[in-house]
């Protein structure tokens, strides 16, 4: 079973739909530091990973000869040559460490100079034009001819316009792979697509398999059970051809201690017979960063996490006595795990759209290019907010019917269902465990390098659980018409969020988070200010919707 980790290639061909690439490109000194790559490969191999996905929206101007498309160049030839040389070294070094290198890219993308030179309009950016087909075919074929050390490619087709999509994928990508490197593995990122539209309409020469990279539970980590969409792909394409993809957006900027969840996921993937999985970094916009010191810290912070994904559980690590700090602080691990379960519950209960629009840690949801506070009033009307279009996700994942607050106030929670009372009870219990472990870790971390950071995260998660207990109670009180009681709960929640900010801001002023197809600087202060404004209005008897409070 393939176990792959993601690393973002810090180059940029444009600012649109580019995740955090312009920022990464401006801060990519680490890319040419060979010691960072060697330590990364050594570390990940030691954890049981055997593949790397180097991901970028459109890396080709930094990887191949574009003399055929001079208007696609974004840098001078000498600089492009330096990047090509380094990419060769990265892939060859990965193989030296028994890490199979793959490259991921978006299927249709034009570098910004090309957009301008050819007057390509915004509405045509994702359209399957003849130019898009010819240019993408050339890039894909030339890439594989230039880098024989690449094991294969991942082509992300998510934003390709539906018109002629399968024809485009066949001619621009599949035919290019078969012409250049019939031996190369080909994965299509097909999350959100109808499996049959891919399986029935595309094929490789010589009956070679097309493999599919599918999100296991959307952009969140919520449970060991898969989303129904993933299960459908397994049924239609065959488990051996499906590769589980994991995004961990509900934990940014914290680490995750979801050890039991991960062990369950890995076990399920193995039982299903899937081809493997890929895992994005917990701090995707910091990994592996610019300095060896930072990489060492982040690696140590997330060491247990990667070991569990690699097949070595906590109990086995304890028996091995490594890492030493885990052995010294093993009593704290259950509490740390409780903190992570809070983030899973919040992502799953409120659900969002499964694609990262709902940010429980920032109490906000995203629409278009703006984020808004999830207000007390919003919590009573989730059904009319597009960002919360998957409120039945709990039942899809766990099998238990879920009852949202608005429905609960009308008719209560039926037997064998999960409603606000059950959520409050579980959050309160998990919060107590996380806070106790976090506080103990902070007190007893003298001389430790890793535990203070882990303890801060656990303590913050515990306070976040308490914060939502108060917010849910406030919504229930407001829904019953008791605004005075609602305001009391809102006041307590506000104090808890101030504490989260104080704890987490003790070691960083801001952090970067994913926002749709981009990324942004975030601070706890932006959410705090929105909460304060909501509280001020509620004190006047005005309970407003989230669009009144931007969180940016």
Walk me through the structure.
- The chain has 552 residues and is an alpha/beta fold.
- It has two domains: 2-320, Glycosidases (TIM Barrel), CATH 3.20.20; 336-548, no CATH class.
- The chain is built from 20 helices and 13 strands.
- The chain has helices at residues 21-26, 34-46, 77-96, 112-117, 130-146, 165-180, 195-199, 228-237, 259-272, 292-301, 303-309, 314-320, 324-328, 333-350, 393-398, 405-411, 420-443, 451-479, 483-504, 524-539, and strands at 2-8, 51-55, 100-106, 152-156, 185-189, 211-215, 242-246, 276-279, 358-359, 364-367, 370-373, 511-515, 518-522.
- The protein has an eight-stranded parallel barrel. It has a three-stranded antiparallel beta sheet with strand order 9-10-11. A two-stranded antiparallel sheet has the order 12-13.
- A hairpin with a 2-residue loop joins strand 10 and strand 11 (370-373).
- Helix 14 (333-350) runs antiparallel to helix 17 and helix 14 packs parallel to helix 18 (451-479).
- It is globular, with a radius of gyration of 24 Å.
Domain unit count: 2
Low-confidence stretches: none
The CATH homologous superfamily of the largest domain corresponds to Glycosidases
Beta-strand content estimate? 5-15%
What percent of residues adopt helix (DSSP H or I)? Answer: 40-55%
CA(first)-CA(last) distance: 41 Å
């Amino acid at each position: 079973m393939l176990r792959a980790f993601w690393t973002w290639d810090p180059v940029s061909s444009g600012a649109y739909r580019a995740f955090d690439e312009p920022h990464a490109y401006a801060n990519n000194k680490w890319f040419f530091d060979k010691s960072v790559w060697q330590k990364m490969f050594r570390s990940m191999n030691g954890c049981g990973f055997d593949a790397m996905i180097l991901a970028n929206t459109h890396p080709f101007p930094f990887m191949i000869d574009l003399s055929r498309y001079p208007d696609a160049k974004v840098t001078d030839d000498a600089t492009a040559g330096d990047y090509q040389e380094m990419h060769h070294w990265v892939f060859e070094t990965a193989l030296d460490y028994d890490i199979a290198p793959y490259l991921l890219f978006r299927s249709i993308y034009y570098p910004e100079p090309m957009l301008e030179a050819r007057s390509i309009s915004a509405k045509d950016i994702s359209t399957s034009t003849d130019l898009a087909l010819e240019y993408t075919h050339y890039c894909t074929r030339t890439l594989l001819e230039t880098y024989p050390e690449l094991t294969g490619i991942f082509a992300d087709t998510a934003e390709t316009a539906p018109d002629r999509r399968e024809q485009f994928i066949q001619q621009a990508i599949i035919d290019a792979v078969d012409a250049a490197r019939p031996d190369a593995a080909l994965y299509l990122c097909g999350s959100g697509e109808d499996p049959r539209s891919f399986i029935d309409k595309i094929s490789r020469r010589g009956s070679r398999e097309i493999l599919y990279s599918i999100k296991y539970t959307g952009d969140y980590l919520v449970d060991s059970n898969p989303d129904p969409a993933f299960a459908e792909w397994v049924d239609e394409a065959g488990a051996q051809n499906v590769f589980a993809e994991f995004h961990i957006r509900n934990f940014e900027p914290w680490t995750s201690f979801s050890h039991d969840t991960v062990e369950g996921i890995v076990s399920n993937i193995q039982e299903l017979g899937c081809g493997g999985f890929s895992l994005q970094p917990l701090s995707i916009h910091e990994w592996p960063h610019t300095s060896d010191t930072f990489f060492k810290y982040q690696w140590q912070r997330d060491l247990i996490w990667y070991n569990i994904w690699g097949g070595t559980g906590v109990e086995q690590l304890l028996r091995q006595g490594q890492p030493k700090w885990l052995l010294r602080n093993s009593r704290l691990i259950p509490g740390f795990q409780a903190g992570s379960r809070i983030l899973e519950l919040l992502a799953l209960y409120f659900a969002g759209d499964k694609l990262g629009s709902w940010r429980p840690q920032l109490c906000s949801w995203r629409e278009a290019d703006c984020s808004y506070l999830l207000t007390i009033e919003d919590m009573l009307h989730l059904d009319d907010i597009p960002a919360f279009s998957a409120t039945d996700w709990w039942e899809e994942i766990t099998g238990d019917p879920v009852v949202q607050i608005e429905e609960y106030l009308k008719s209560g929670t039926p037997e064998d269902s999960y409603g606000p009372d059950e959520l409050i009870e579980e959050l309160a219990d998990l919060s107590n465990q996380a806070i106790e472990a976090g506080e103990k870790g902070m007190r007893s971390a003298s001389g430790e390098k890793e535990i203070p950071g882990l303890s801060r995260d656990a303590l913050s998660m515990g306070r976040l659980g308490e914060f939502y207990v108060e917010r849910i109670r406030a919504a229930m009180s407001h829904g019953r018409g008791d605004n005075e009681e609602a305001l009391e709960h809102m006041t307590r929640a506000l104090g808890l969020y101030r504490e989260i900010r104080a704890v987490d801001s003790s070691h960083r002023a801001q952090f970067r988070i994913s926002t749709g197809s981009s990324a942004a600087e975030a601070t706890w202060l932006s959410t705090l200010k929105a909460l304060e404004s909501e509280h001020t209005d509620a004190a006047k008897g005005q309970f407003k919707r989230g669009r009144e409070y931007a969180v940016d």
